[in-house]
Amino acid sequence: MSDTPPPARIPAADRAYDLTKDLILGGGLPGGTLISEGEIAERTGLSRTPVREAFLRLQAEGLLQLFPKRGAVVVPVGPGEAEDVLELREALESSAVRRIGRRTDAELAELVRGLAGLIELQREPARRADVGAFAEADEAFHRGIVTAAGNALAERFYETLRDRQRRMTVQLLRPRPERLDGLVEEHAALVERIAARDTEGFAAALRAHLDAHR
Predict the structure, then answer these.
(1) Which among 74, 96, 171, 182 is most buried, taking Cβ atoms within 10 Å?
(2) End-to-end alpha-carbon separation of the chain, Å?
(3) Domain ranges of the chain
(4) Whole-prediction pTM value?
(5) Dist. CA 171–CA 117, nearest whole Å
(6) CA separation (Å) from 185 to 34, 80, 107, 188, 211?
């Protein structure tokens, strides 16, 4: 008989939270959509109590606005929010690449291989025009640049942009899935600038890349 313990059950509120948040970030519940506790309870096979707890968490994160006895409305991306997020991403990623440029040749080569691997993970979703999966891979790539710099404070701050970045990418690309292959190639060009220690070229290429999200 195996001594391996059974996998831990995911708490009901966490299941409701994960499903609802994934629907919001992945575009399944666009901004302005009215949803009810009963709808999510039915989808998850849970009672309304853990769903209510999940909704409260999502309201605290700014993704839902609750209305007693009516349900919740998915909070749309604010008119200035996208510009704010892109401005912060540009600053953090450009700063990260300046720091990466001071690494030894061996360290730089290893970092470049890691980033190239993250690009490969984007190709299949791009081929399938799977915008949701591509948005996750896109976020992982850009976060990988910041992580590679080794600045723990910058990495933690960038993590706070993660949900907004994914949601904005889905919102932008869902009507334009033909853009995905081109974005993969733009990512490859960014990595080429990093490999060449071309920090100014990277900053210019990143600015052009992010301009497509404006």
Answers:
(1) 96
(2) 58
(3) 12-74, 81-211
(4) 0.83
(5) 25
(6) 38, 28, 24, 5, 15
CATH of the domain spanning 12-74, picked from 1.10.287.470, 3.30.565.10, 1.10.10.10, 3.40.50.300: 1.10.10.10
d(Cα 148, Cα 122) in Å, to the nearest integer?
18
Q: Which CATH class is domain 81-211?
A: mainly alpha
Structure tokens that stand for 68 in this block: 């007693």
Residue (of 163, 117, 162) closest to 143 by Cα position: 162
CA–CA distance from 49 to each of 34, 42, 71, 154, 163 (Å)? 19, 12, 13, 37, 25
The tens place of each residue's pLDDT in the chain, 214 residues long, gives: 456 554 567 889 999 999 999 999 988 999 999 999 999 999 889 999 999 999 999 999 999 999 988 899 999 988 788 899 999 999 999 999 999 999 999 999 999 999 999 999 999 999 999 999 999 999 999 999 999 999 999 999 999 999 889 999 998 899 999 999 999 999 999 999 999 999 999 999 999 999 877 6
| Chain centroid offset of residue 210 CA | 14
